[in-house]
């Protein structure tokens, strides 16, 4: 059974006002006092962000439980210094991001200017184990059309600098400002993938391989493929669903590769349009169907994803759970819909943040 690990970026906020607080160094110092937590939490680009990483799990119920535990620990450490954590992919309230100290972050600030100062955006990255780089690249080539559907399920960033962005995931639009971000063409082999990465680093436009921000990439640190399209999800069960579907996509793609089936080859231009549509619509309107690249109701496209990975879900024992989670998400809405409904009900972005803090831990 393939193992899965999740990295989540959380927003540090004032528990009273909901405004982001640049307190990550203090939270990390507190967490470092606990030997069990030293490898769980990490610093990110901005001081208003805190990242955690789960241990790899083969059982999705255990992975979900670990996501919940890590969120609870993040909340505990933040609470110890007067902060709270919120699983929000952008801050609903206006914020001036504080770039972290260190040579790497300062190089990025000097190189990219305002782009770095706008990147207070928070994602969910899913690592799925693969047997080799060759299998990993075969997976990358074959999951490309389905990534916007994963992104649509996760959308959780409708607000930007105190205003409604009119997007379900404005985080993804901000993230696309990095020169190495976004969908990729077919690679065909691990050798071609690594050559492309080396050529990109050799231009000097990016600092190193860690700045390869493909929508899905080979991990530098682990024997995994890393999915990077999802917003951090408001609810932990949505994050677990994204991880479950990512593993099923990997298993489905690997099986197709072993059977000698060629990957579909929509152009990067069409994949960018599909990603834009997912960011704009989320689950509330239409998405581009991966098979036709034409607009269809979001529910129809999500059901197509479930059908595409159905055999893999059955093999892992996740079929019923995934279908139930999708049905609940379609019925009750993801983070973007919840945030907008909270604002409509309360009239206050501060109250939106306060409620999202509660849901992050709940």
Automatic annotation (TrEMBL):
Its EC number is 6.3.2.2. It comes from the Bacteria. GO terms for molecular function: ATP binding; glutamate-cysteine ligase activity. Coiled coil: none annotated. Keywords: ATP-binding, Ligase, Nucleotide-binding. Pfam families: GCS2 (PF04107). It is an enzyme of class 6 (ligase). GO terms for biological process: modified amino acid biosynthetic process. It catalyses: L-cysteine + L-glutamate + ATP = gamma-L-glutamyl-L-cysteine + ADP + phosphate + H(+). Belongs to the glutamate--cysteine ligase type 2 family. YbdK subfamily. NCBIfam families: gshA_cyan_rel, PRK13517.1-1. ATP-dependent carboxylate-amine ligase which exhibits weak glutamate--cysteine ligase activity. This is Putative glutamate--cysteine ligase 2. It comes from Streptomyces cyaneogriseus subsp. noncyanogenus.
């Amino acid at each position: 059974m393939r193992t899965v690990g999740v990295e989540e970026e959380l927003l540090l906020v004032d528990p009273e006002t909901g405004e982001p607080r640049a307190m990550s160094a203090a939270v990390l110092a507190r967490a470092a006092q606990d030997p069990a937590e030293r490898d769980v939490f990490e610093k990110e680009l901005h001081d208003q962000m805190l990242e955690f990483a789960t241990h790899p799990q083969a059982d999705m119920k255990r992975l979900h439980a670990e996501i919940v535990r890590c969120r609870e620990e993040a909340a505990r450490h933040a609470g110890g210094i007067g902060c709270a954590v919120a699983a929000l992919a952008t801050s609903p309230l206006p914020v001036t991001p504080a770039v972290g100290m260190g040579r790497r972050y300062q190089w990025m600030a000097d190189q990219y200017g305002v782009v770095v100062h706008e990147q207070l955006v928070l994602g969910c990255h899913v690592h799925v184990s693969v047997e080799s780089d060759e299998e990993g690249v075969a997976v990358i080539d074959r999951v490309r059309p389905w990534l916007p559907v994963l992104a649509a399920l996760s959308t959780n960033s409708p607000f930007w600098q105190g205003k409604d962005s009119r997007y379900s995931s404005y985080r993804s639009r901000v993230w696309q400002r990095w020169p190495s971000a976004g969908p990729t063409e077919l690679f065909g082999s691990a050798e071609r993938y690594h050559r492309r990465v080396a050529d990109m680093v050799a231009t000097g436009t990016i600092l190193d391989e860690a700045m390869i921000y493909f929508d899905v990439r080979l991990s530098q640190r682990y024997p995994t493929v890393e999915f990077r399209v999802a917003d951090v999800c408001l609810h932990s069960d949505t994050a677990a669903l994204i991880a479950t579907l990512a593993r099923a996509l990997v298993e489905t793609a690997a099986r197709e590769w072993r059977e000698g089936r060629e990957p579909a080859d929509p152009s990067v231009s069409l994949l960018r349009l599909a990603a834009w549509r997912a960011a704009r619509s989320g689950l509330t309107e239409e998405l581009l169907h991966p098979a036709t690249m034409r607009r269809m109701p979001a529910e129809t496209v999500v059901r197509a994803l479930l059908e595409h990975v159905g055999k893999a879900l059955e093999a892992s024992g996740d079929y019923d759970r995934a279908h139930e989670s999708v049905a609940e998400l379609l019925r009750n809405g993801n983070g973007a819909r919840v945030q907008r409904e909270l604002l409509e009900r309360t009239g206050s972005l501060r109250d939106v943040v306060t409620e999202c803090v509660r849901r992050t831990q709940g």
